[in-house]
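Field: sequence (string)
Field: structure_tokens (string)

Example rows 1 and 2, in order.
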Amino acid sequence: MKQKIAAFLVVCMLLQMPGGALTAQGSMNHPAGAKQIVAVSADNEEIEERLNAAGGLQLKIKNLLGTPECKFHIWLEPKGKAAQQMEETEWLDEEFDAGWVKDQEGRINIDAVFEDQEIPAGKYVLHLEGVGPAGFYLPYQQDITIEAGQTLKLLLANDYPERYDFESEKDSSKRKMGILVPGNFRAEENEDKEELSEEDLNGLLSLINGKEAQEELKVYYDLNGDGEVDLRDLEYFVRFYHNKDRRLAKAVTAPLILFEMVQPVDPDNGNSISNKKIQELFSGTRENEEDKGKPLTFYGALDDHAIAVGNPVEIAANFTRPATIEGFVIYPQTGSLSAMQDGEVVFEGEDGTIYTVTVKDGKQVGEPKKDNSRKTTQSTTSSKNSSVSKATSSTAASSSSSRRVSANKTLQKSSAVRAKAYATEQTEPQENKAKANEADEDKAIQAKPVLINLGSQIPVKHITIRITKTMKQSSLVDIARVEFLNDMEDHIPEPDLSIPDRLNGIPGDAKFTVNWRNQPNVTGYEVVVYGKTMKSDDTELEEKFPEQIMNTLTVSSLEGGELVNNEIYKVKVRSLNGEWKSPYSELIEVRTEATKRPEPPEQISITGGSQKLTVKWKKMKSTDSYNLYYREKTGKETEFSALTGITGTSTEITGLKDTTTYELYMTGQNQIGVSDPSERYEGKTIVVVPPVTPNFKLLNVPKKGGGASEKIVSVNNHGNSVACDEFATVDGIFETSWIRNDWDAGCVYFDNNKSPIITFDQAYKMDTVVIIPDYEQKFNYSGCKLVYWDEQDKQGIAEGRLTRLLDKDGIPYYEFIAREPFTAKKVRVAVTTGYNRRISFAELKFYEYYSLEDEIFDMYTDTLHIMLRDDVTEDKIKGFYERLEYVDPVSGEKTPRYTFLKQELDNAMDLLHNKGSIGRVLYLDDKLTKRSDGHINFGGGLNTWQPLGVTGLAGDKVILYVGGDGKIEGDSTSLSVIATQYFGESSTVFKSVTGLKVGLNEITIPRITNLSSAEAGGQLYVQYGGTSGAEKYAVRVTIPDAEDGRSKAALIPMINLYNDLDKSTQQERIAAYLEELDNIDPQALHNECHGSIEHAYDPQTCVFGATDIAGKRVMFSLPSEQIKKGLGSGEARAQKLTNTVEAMDQLLTLCYQHKGVSDDETLVNNKKANAGNEMPVSRINIRYQRMFEGAFMYAGGAHIGIGWGSSAGMMEGVPVKTDAKGKYQSGSLFGWGIAHEIGHEINEGAYAVAEVTNNYYAQLAKSRDTDATTRWGDYSKVYEKVTSGAKGPASNGAVQLAMYWQLHLAYDKDYNFKIYDRYQEQFDSLFFARMDSYARGSVKAPAPKGVALKVDGDKDNNLMRLACAAAQKDVLEFFVRWGMEPDALTKAYAAQFPKETRAIWLASDDKRVRVLEAGKDPGSESYSAVVDGSVSYDENDDNNTVHIELTTSDSSDKFIGYEIFRIEQKGKETIRTAVKFVPADGTGTAVTEDVIATINNRAFTYEVVGYNLWLQPTKPVNIGQARVSHSGNMDQTNWSAVTNMLSDNPPLPGEGEDEEPDAVRDDAILCVIDGDNGTTFTGKTTETFNADGTKTPAADPEVVIYLNGEETLTALEYQLADGKSGAIGKFTIEVSADGTTWTKVPTEKDVFNLSGTTDSGAKVQKVVFSKKNAVSGKYELCTYDASMVKLTAVGQAGKTISISEIVLFGQTGDRIDWVSNGVGYLKEDYVNPKNPAEKLISKGSLIFTGEYAGNPAYNVVLLWDENNKVVGGKNGEEIKAGQLIFAPDPGEGDLTRVEKGKWVYYIDAADLGGVNLPAKVRAELYRVDNALTNEGQRLVSSTVFIDMPKTIPEILLEGTDLSQASVKKAAEKGETP
């Protein structure tokens, strides 16, 4: 067979692969050549002396293993004359860093380089050894000779290079590399530098087997630097263990290249670049670590103008001594848009000849031109002064408008010089710029190196690089390095790493979208985002988003936190292809931008200080800064003062008046504008004065002017942390105080040495002490004890009640009242803060006992004060009234408890005469305690508050009488009071006020909120904190009369239904409650009790509008007006209220059952066995609250907040009725919203995903066991997700929820609403009951093979482990289908269970109902039905769609559908990917398509599996192969289109008619990008009328398509459905990146003739972007990067135009194909066409031939047989095969992309013996990143199998021709070997 191939460069590749692995590519060495740059003295004699006395050393170590960073120590030991002439201090002795660390793009540097160019000539012994933890290399030693004027080059490697296909290393006689052999891993510790030992092996195996912690030892044993110690490291270890190969490097010398850099012409420019950096540019090295990898940037003369002919950049250098070079490469910065495109390079040879090389579009144009008329410099051998001056003047003359960058360095010292730009008035014509713009669009964006080839080796003494244009015509150019070459044939072009480029960030409101240009030969992308969130405050987070199929991603959150507006986020992207990953792109920044004004600031709190207020507020979304406005509250409308531009969430207002109330509001601000004002708030400053406290019966009255009372003898200030005066606590001076920096002053832990002891002059009877803290005391006192001593010094302890009180100005103090009066001469006051470490006493006031209160209390027989003693008479009560009027003669005051005691006497008189009210008496539930809920892990959102049915404003008093079984007056209780804020903000809901004592407790309602726009105050509750069922309490609530015109509290309607009440009792309570509800008049109460306050009555804010309805599992705390509205009127109200409470209790019971908790008595009675699974007694509290931004309900601490409008709906619940198995019959458990919030409160934290898993409970409430009642509908989106192969969660939250719901469908035994009476049945029947139970107690989880469940992973892995435990099956495939990736521990736990064989990812509600109705499962795990089908793909269609037809033997309704799998072979690996689920339609057949969006030029085998109703699979069936290969037609997802035509087409489905009614809009044009040429847009342009009455003629019709980001485009296709008229005729195509500048695309034709036809019959024409070559006259393919494409129908204004579809095409990627009859035995030797003496393939070799598209320098072909073995195997031994890849000779340039090249794969005739020839063969094309090591190997194209010919013909290769005729002729003669 012959086939003509003209003038091709042959790239030879030999494969030697153990076990068929692709390990090598061929003999492509890095170009050899001098790269050294050494500055020289300006004195040429000194230079010559230097060159004649010294030489250089370059030591390069190739990191073939990819090991971590390592330092090396190198020293030269002189020998012979050198040893005699040198002192030891002059020896070269240095450390250098290998730099083998991963850079930000994840790559490991290949070479460590050490260079020194000033080594005295002579003989040396080179010593090299590793240093540091990873320096485990054995010492290397080699004799070397340094020659004057030469550089000695040594090349070492840390692995055997022949393994990496270095051609020169395969022949031992030609080897150049020395081997640096790993030694003892712990050499640094052992200091013995031994060879690898058994100890090292054991240490490595211990780490691999997990017997030792890895982190601290990784540095020693992680040989390949991948961050893990695993089998790959063991493979490397075995490679060197007992291997004695210690080869040395071959010494290679090269001329020492020295530069004398020309001085700059004008050193005054501000942009300076030092000589040293210029030299480093040419050497490719950086001395400073921070400079490594950074380019040098040069500007044109006019900094703000693009580099151009009139504004160039020049870089010039003199060689001190002529160096022979053949060319060099100018490397750009990776990804830079400022790389050199146009310019020239001028060389001056040793003989003075000038060579000029022109560069155009980044490539050399033609051969170098000789031009002796141009002299760039004088000879460098002239004197110093003349050399510099002449060079300066001559160069300046040749380019007077350039910026020249130069450098000079002496041997002794480096001096920085400046780079100066200067220009003439010459500027580039605008038309030239336009042409440059157009030409620039023809190139791909990734910068390429500029390769300069002189054609032969030339001694050069001067070089000038002149740059006149960059890629994007920028004003600067980036150059990474310049590399000199002396052998162009060995040059290897930079690899195309498919790094995503053209990253573009699109700002959004609290989100952003990033897109990038699609890359060829990749399957997806990984995106990393850095930035802050609402949760993270100032901490920058990092999130790696799972593989993205599309080249776009919208980001609205990081690590679960919402993005912040006006914040900069950083993004980088890399390409993926299986395990291969490209380096990351450069980081881009994108700022989020608000699209509307911010919401007003919320949750403002104010703390008063002395002459200041401290203000804090919630961090608001979309807010850049805050403004605060304040004024004194005077009741008059005065102006506000302002603090503006506040960027934090707190501030201080200073310079205020003392004890003054200020009102304030705030606004937020962003770039859009200022928010509406917030609510008004108020705060009060304090003054550093003592509170006004009672002096009635005060014992220690201080002296006038200050000083302790004479009744106090001494004070012992025990426990003070700060020195103070002896009488500081009793001197009447507030500024003096006792301070202890601790949380306890001998109160909790008894100690008389922790607080002051006050000694009186005599013993006094007392019962009350007032404690006044100093003004800095921020922490409240929570407990108090009084220790006292009587006259006999006998110690006693007074127990009592501590109450925090406020004086009329709000200044706090504490009152301690002892249970019993005591007589004391000494007293110690002991308090505690509970946990805050500061206690202070500014004053302690002791009061003489006054018995009146005790005598009044003694009239009662009970602690609730509702029963009088028998001896109480009216006269006795009147006597108490008289004594109440007593005035203390010292203070002039009546008892401070006058009002309260008067009310007690009034109460007694009423009781005596059987009239009046005793208030409200409540019997508390002692089973409602948090102590019972310690086992649950979701209790933070629940509470155990019991309503008291009382409310009031802050400052109002409430009296609570507490009675307890077995308790006496003054005893402590387990009760505490909770105060709440009615209609409060989410941050100011409740506050714990105080503990209660038996008997009387006076409660002051605290201020919780600083809101001034609403009433401060709310309901009170009592909370029991004791052991369940252990203490019985009753509470009586009374309201004292208001004092001094103040407001007072009031009783409100409330009902308790939480006890197990009989029906009649429940009905009585409901009737009484409804009566209270009818009788309550909040407005009348407001006028009566709040008449003195400033707030007018508002039904939404008045605290008297509150009511509480307490059920078993829920408490509604809602507005009474809305309760009435929700209940309606008439007799049905009682039943409706009953229904609501029962429905909510039922909903919560249902939710709790799925959480695995129960109130089953068998569970309660066996707590040991079932600990942790009891139903919580705490309740969900649904409260009326103020809604924050964007909310209508929310879940908060201890409550769920709902708004006014949602409150009435809480009365709409109806208990659900079901059949025995839980099948829904009737009822409604509220709406989605409240169940959603309940889900937030009870979510299982081990696997909770916010806004997803909480919706499981909402779905429970709403589902009716049908697909239609799910949040996600018909499951089509679910099936798309589970057959997409996409990693990470679904983008749609409802679809994410479906994953959890499918587990319920797959494993729960009954219908949705089934509630179980017995815990065991519940546990056995509900999947999530088991899961959550194991989450609370993992020790109970099954572990059949001893692998215990650990719930310590991330949320995904916790979920997977718990699911395996609950199912007792390995269900990991289910989660992998949903995009999760199990870790090693999860896999190990799952592996002990049998695999789940059902396809539970296909479960749905409708199917499950049918299963439940059908009864038991069939029992078999396999399904006997047979499925079959076929696939077809027509490459002539040029699309990415494979057509699939399916059939099944089971056409019954038990067959639910087909799952299609796409199978791809990647070498030995078989990758099976689900791509689609096709539901059955009952016909037994189905037709579908597989649209392959991201992969091209690949061969696939298709497989189909059928499933029955029980999700059991049929046997998989292979239905055929397809090879998808298209010309890059692009995915239209997220595209949009606009047109200037008007159409009569109807709106697209789902479009509203009233959207933007004033806008001229016609969305019908979107049908041209809907992927369906059956939909056609028809329209025309029309003339328009102007405001002045004139007309503008109709324009040419045009359609603009907006792509989803910038793409590389190659062609456009126009389709028109058959039978449609209005075809476009003459056309133009334009592209744009910004919508402003449009570039016309050249095409061979400019008229559509629609000569083609699609499968559907549509007429079609594809237009390839191509430009005519001016020389050859042929049209050449060109590409354009654009984000918008405009198609214009030229000259067709006003005419009807029809378009069915517009298809755009991008890059096609690499491709491999077979040629017809291309397999045979070689008839004659095949020789190198350029060198006939070189035989490439021997006669008789078996050859395979084909075609490819790609880059031959980075492509590798591999053939596989039907047994998945590499073709060329010989008796199971090492495989030997070779290949030739043919590419056009690049001439002076690099090997670049080839669109239709040839390849030959062969097994040499000598190796054919014993080779088993395949029956079938397929081809794979690989691409690699590194041509030397095959690093970055990935599959990019493959073919289907072809059959080997039964009779293998002979093939004749003549030159580069393969002839079909020769094959036929040889076969006819029977000459086949």
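Row 2 begins here:
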Amino acid sequence: MPRRTDINDILIIGSGPIVIGQACEFDYSGTQACRVLKDEGFRVILVNSNPATIMTDPDFAHATYVEPITPDVVARIIERERPDAVLPTLGGQTGLNTAMALFERGLIGVPGTPEMIGANAEAIATAEDRGRFKQAMIEIGLAVPASGIAHTMVQAREVVAEVGLPCIIRPAYILGGRGTGIASTPEEFESAAALGLAASPIGEILIECSIAGWKEFELEVMRDCVDNCVIICSIENVDPMGVHTGDSITVAPAQTLSDVEYQQMRDAAFACIRRVGVETGGSNVQFAVNPMTGEQVVIEMNPRVSRSSALASKATGFPIAKIAAKLAVGYTLDEITNDITGTPASFEPTLDYVVTKIPRWAFEKLPGTSGVLGTQMQSVGEVMSIGRTFPESLQKGLRSLELGRNGLGCDAAEAQLASLTADDLLAAVAIATPDRIFQIAELLRRGVSAEQVHAACRIDHWFLDQMSQIIEERAVLDQIGFAAMTHRQWKRAKQFGFSDAQLAWLWHVDELAVRAAREGAGVFPTYKTVDTCAAEFATQTPYHYSAWEDENEVRASARPRVIILGSGPNRIGQGIEFDYCCVHASFALREAGFETVMVNCNPETVSTDYDTSDRLYFEPLTTEDVLNVIAAETAAAGGVAPKVIVSLGGQTPLKLSGHLPPELIAGTSSASIDLAEDREKWNALCNDLRIPQPPGGTAIDLAQAFAIVEGIGYPVLVRPSYVLGGRAMRIVHDADHLTSAMKELAGFGSLGKEGGLSAERPVLIDRFLEDAKEVDVDAIRDRTGEVLIGGVMEHVEEAGVHSGDSACAIPPQTLPSWVVEVIERYTCAIANALEVCGPINVQFAVLGTTAFVIEANPRASRTVPFVAKATGVPLAKIASRVMLGATLAELRAEGLVRRASDHGHVAVKEAVLPFSRFPEVDTALGPEMRSTGEVMGIDTTFGRAFFKAQLAAGTLLPTEGTVFLSLADGDKPAGLVVAQRLRDLRLGIASTKGTGEYLERFGITVDQVVGKISDGHGINAVKLIESGQIVFVVNTPQGRGGRTDGEQIRKCANAHHVSSVTTVEAALAAVEGMAEMVGVELSVRSLQEYHQS
């Protein structure tokens, strides 16, 4: 069937901020959909609250709304834009849930309203409603685990009496397994069922008999409007059932199914998508298989492009989201051409390699978490690796994680396990944790049988056998020794995935010596192509992975080329914002005539789309792998080495810059990068410029740290060098705290195992400036010395809260204009002194009217996308052109550099925190970043923009009810303003005794004063929150302390889904926003309107 002509305007609902379970894979899918629908001639309308996405760039849609994704807001956009259709299947669970809410209001999917394309409301409800899905599967003869549905705790107890324990609780309409749990005892069941009911938007849970320990599989399915169905990819979990698939190591294609079992599963997936009624597009069907009998059961289905769809797309090279968008507007699979092979999209991909996905967690950022993996997803990112065999692919994936591991052991970090006995390790592998894979390797290395290991961890024998082969090869290599290696032995070692760094550690030699000896033996990597067809057809798209074979598939080219090093796996502190910069660099440099080469290992990103760059290498971002790509590209260009961009992908490529040939670095030199990081050189530079900075110094051990503190006094800010996201950063108030902070940076502390302290990586210790206002500046300097100030951002929270966790505003709202001008002058002077050529981010703390410089980072910052959306100036594109030699004057003449739009609007960036997943974590903000994503609010005033940002972040600001106040002594004066505004808004106030007495001293009455929690009797804050009497909490921490009342209040609010703020500055901004929105309807406006000239 040809493209539909009865629709013209299509609204795409995005997925909003990056959260656990819903990350930047939906930027990848949304970007593909926007591009293809625009190319097809449709008018595209997009709503997404996340400014760090490529899809929210105004170029990708005709009308781009960076607005909260709530039913009310999207309804206003529909009223304003009058779309013909709504596409909800590319925005994750957020897109589906929002679409269903709109459908239930009669605003879409019913006659006279925009049509739902991709999947209609009936299909979404059938797949997402656990009871309906179970019944649908039974109707078509597919097996499901024994189960029952409950909407109340009374019903839940009745169901579990029939199903029995252990059981698994699965809420309906949830994301990333939120609220899911396994219960083995009545007490665990009561807790898990209550959590599940609270997590489900419709208050529904499925209680099913536990099949923990079974094997888990996923099939990615596509269907068109004439009922053609294809399987894009099969995926197998290494971890057995009981670990959320997003937290499991997974492998594609499936490795342990027989052909008969696979065909049975394939038929079941087709039957499933047809019965559910997904009319067009992609779906993900999950199965469990009993390893003893081969019995198969259907677990669940996602009637949309999912997290696994991104993995399947990158694993196969098949552009699932792009094809899904085309199917949604009427095309059939046989009418769509696969860009890579030129064959119809109805051909199922075939893989002649093994893909491994490994999650990355952030438990070190969330003290109090158990670190135990279960049915709720907890990982914040993932890597993907491609190898000819599973051992090669696994080892590449492990070294891609950037956690101080060079592969499956054979590195310094394995010493952590040396003190554990075999029995200790067997007990440890019975519990799923991020370290389980390394514990298994250690058991196999010690000679514990695979049967014993399997009995403990339930991981399939095939995977254990593959890991045993790695361990056996290691023993052989150790026996041969460095000097005796032959060409054949080098090649075999590399085909097992051993990195040069692993071999260097094994043989106690330098990594570069290993590289030289290997190359001297004539062993170099070759690069194969991901072609979707196992080389059955000729392919055009250069999407490569390394192998150690004979034929190299990198095509020669004489065009000038540039390698862009990506940012690796998403993590707290280094996320989608840096991928945004890398993608823009590729776009801008391709337009300028360069051949762009992307190197990255993150399957969720737009940067690893096969058509973002001229060439893509899906490789680890390590010294060895990057040098190999440089060598391959140099050879393909006839010996002309490419330029390499290291300053857009965050700290990952920046740390590599010192290991790459200096003449290849594009833009700011590695020497300038080091100058900004080296504390002594940096201090001298600031002294020469007469720019104030807090007193401090550097230390590599505790004695040096104490010596510095003796000179500058407490409190101090302790932070490692060469890290992002405030990694291991602490505000230290006394000697004991300083001692514990330094321990984290050495040995096997949270940062120590990633490199520890050394003269090259010292800890920075500065006097902490209490009550200072923090300011960020993003700028670009060209080779002539001209500096472009991209944006000056004033933070809402005072210094002490990491900039990534603080709300910030453009333009600054409280700083005098002359202070802003001074900050801009300081920024220009620093950029010139560092001889920056490209982007730079400078952070300041303003105390009174004095601006102290905190640090300068000669690289792109996480605020670059926000600044671009707020001002309309494409900073990442400008920076990439400048790094390759263009001047700002030349780019101004081209029209790329333009004046920031100024239509009287204010933009506010707000952090999105992961605390709803971790009720055991204190929600108080501090100097170490803990947010997973961000949103933007944009409107005519700060108050309205801040209100929108809170709404988009999921913080519900109250319009009625009682607010609880508990303020630290230093925050009580500002608390008077907060309390008065709450009274003006006719909200009730409850408080602690100290806060209540202070407020009443100044004439503000408190409705209820509560006692201390530690007293154990009477009414206290926790009881008020648990009983539903509190709608909002303002609780600011009182210095340091252990399990204080404040900590228990914050945790209780988090556990009961009561919004809270933990700084008085955020409380002031919140009441300002609430006051401005009284009696005012929330307005919406597209970015194109904000930035029109």
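free_text_note (row 2): The first strand starts at residue 9 and ends at 13.
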